[in-house]
Amino acid sequence: MTDQNSKPSPRTLIDAETIQARIRELAARIDRDYAASDCLIAIGVLKGSVFFLVDLLKHLQIPVKMDFFQTASYGSGSVGGEVRIRKDLDLSIRGRDVLLIEDIVDTGYTLRTILDLLRFRGAKSVKLCALLDKASRREVEVPIDYLGFSIEDVFVVGYGLDYDERYRNLPYIGVYDGE
Ligand code: 5GP
User: Fold this and answer.
1) Which of 59, 22, 43, 36 is nearest to 99 (CA)?
2) For ligand 1, which residues put their CB under 6 angstroms from it?
3) Contact criterion met (CB below 8 Å) for 93 and 123
4) pLDDT value at position 132?
5) 156 and 104 in contact (C-beta within 8 Å)?
6) What is the residue with the minimal CA distance to atom 8 of ligand 1?
7) Residue 13 in contact with residue 161, Cβ under 8 Å?
8) pTM recorded for the entire structure
9) 106 labelled catalytic
10) Could you tell me the distance, in angstroms and rounded to a whole number, from the CA of residue 105 to the centre of ligand 1?
């Protein structure tokens, strides 16, 4: 199949049905784990986590609020851990249960910085829910409390993930092999 620009569509790694089935399982676990929580605050890391966050939250039965966070890395990539905030949270998280929702954990630098910041701001609890994990690429340890899928070290696009802002709208996760 080809896209609008007649380039081959990224090869499917995880199809849309498999993603949705896994999200329903994750939502059921989150519902159980936070059954006693006043109100969970789900924080999406822009922009890659948006599709995942929206689909996940639609399945939750517990009370939940939604907020977003956006980071940018200094220089080329996040290696070295120099991450700055481009868009901060609107909600206060002091004393609240926070679930950080991320598209993919790669080296772990970005997430470690965000998780440390959320704890510093006095959240009652901070857990991480990630759709994808490239464990072989990890440089700093980041425990993932809720994980969609482990994948090999390939560059993936779709379901929120981009290459140069393209492909986010694919309903599946595909492998981007270059143009
Ligand atoms: P980390 O700080 O863990 O190295 O970087 C995580 C971020 O790198 C993700 O949120 C995502 O923006 C980007 N990233 C890492 N691997 C991939 C990939 O395979 N595809 C895409 N589209 N982005 C990736």
Assistant:
1) 43
2) 48, 78, 102-111, 155-157, 161-162
3) yes
4) 98
5) yes
6) 106
7) no
8) 0.92
9) yes
10) 6
CA-nearest of 56, 65, 74 to 113 is: 74
| CA gap 103, 49 in Å, rounded | 5
CA distances, 117 to each of 71, 99, 111, 122, 174 (Å): 12, 13, 10, 9, 32
pLDDT digits (tens, 9 = 90+) for 112-159: 989 999 999 999 999 999 999 999 999 999 999 999 999 999 999 999
Which stretch of DSSP H or E encloses residue 43? strand 40-45
Q: Which of 103, 167, 169, 177 to mutate to test the pocket of ligand 1 (most atoms within 8 A of CB)?
A: 103
Strand order from edge to edge, sheet including 40-45: 83-87, 64-73, 40-45, 97-105, 125-133, 146-150
**Is the pLDDT higher at 83 or at 15?**
15
Lookup result for tokens 């929702």: 101
How distant, in Å, are the alpha carbons of 142, 149, 161 from that of 61? 27, 23, 27
Rg (CA), the chain: 16
Average confidence score pLDDT of the chain: 92
